[in-house]
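Dear colleague,

Thank you for sharing your sequence with our group. We've completed the structure prediction you requested, and as agreed, I am returning the results in plain text so they can be pasted directly into your records. Please verify that the sequence below matches your submission; if there's any discrepancy, let me know and we will rerun it promptly.
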Amino acid sequence: MIPRFTTIVTVLFLSYLGNLFYSIWVMVQPPSCTSEGLCLKSFLLRKPNLELTIFVAPHSNPRGPEVIFVNKFLLPNYNESYERLMAVELPRLTKQNGTLYAHVFLSKAQETLYSGDKWTKLLTDPETVYTLVPMSIYKEPEYKIFQLLQDEEDIKKNVKKPVTHIKAVLPVSMLKEPLHFSQIHMPSDIYQYIRLYKKKQEYLPIFLHNTLQDRSFNITKIDKNTTHVPILLRYEPLSYTGLRILTQTQLAMVTLQQFGFKNKDIDEIKAIFDTNHYLLLISIIVAFVHILFDFLAFKNDISFWRSRKSMAGLSSRLVLWRAFSQTVVLLYLFEEKASMLIIVPSVISSVIEIWKVFKIIPIDWKNLKLKQLTLNRAEEDTKKFDAESMKYLSYVLYPLCAGAAIYSLIYEPQKKLVFLEYQKSSQWSLCIWFSFHVTSTFYQL
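Please find the predicted structure tokens below.
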């Protein structure tokens, strides 16, 4: 006996989920090194006093005169989180719609030097590690909202070029565990952060930009008159598990951006990692189960309509308006630049709804005309009951839908005319969809 398709998909899904958890478990296991001569020990075993030194510059590889010293902070205990608010002076090029980079050094605590010597010394200090943090993004200014019936001239003012925005948080992290790494079996994502100390079998602290705490929405708009911006320095110590999750996630984010995911989508994925590891595993399970149920729902919906030979008991109007409303909602999501995690299922649902329309309205594609439909008695009764139900529902629902659209037109702020059309259409679609949903419920009764 051949297993059902649903059973096969469920078994494959559970197998993949089990393999995923096993891979995660292997990934987060701390390394062990037993071969003398091939092991790297941590510089943290010396228990040094560490400090953070921050510079900013308009380029990722600046010249000396372009560098601006911000501040330095002693880490009293590098095993604990640390935050300090800084007033950062902006370079001249940054204020002219340029970029801004933070150059963060982690070094042994030293005597105070003025900024020029500090920059030069830190670049050549064999006991110092460094990370580069992009602090600027280009973003179009928020559209000026307006009342469409009162401020029609403002529509033309909404088109502006992207301007520089500065991130409000500077997140950095360090591996706090003094682990021994094997030079042969070192993970590739960790290898790029290894810096040897004076060519010995000892590595400096693994120090990096914590991209999981980097958000594109927590930003400050600047212009040529802005001289300083507040930036919060946030230091977070990492366990080996946290470090592997961070480095693997960084690689995944790059792949997602290549597939067209935007900063807003990436931020939503990063928010998943704000919880502890146990809640993260639960979130992964829930997300995968949700995907499985979505897939099975789409599969059952398609199977039902493929095998359907009669429209008896089904409302044709409901199918038409569901396709229309789903399409309008999809356009609304595109207009609002919603997350790809929301848009992709909506696209699939819209395609299925449009496919249903061609099932109830057959088309002769060769002659490009509608085929003649012959209805049996049950379908005739369904059509009659459909029209009668809609007649009574329209007495209440149509005035309510029209009133909501007029109220929104007059009183609610809008961004632009196209957005307004989608919004009004989506309101009508939801009202009409609700009426047909009630009608379909009557059919089932």
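Summary note from our side: The CA atoms of residues 366 and 372 lie 15 Å apart.

Kind regards,
the structure core
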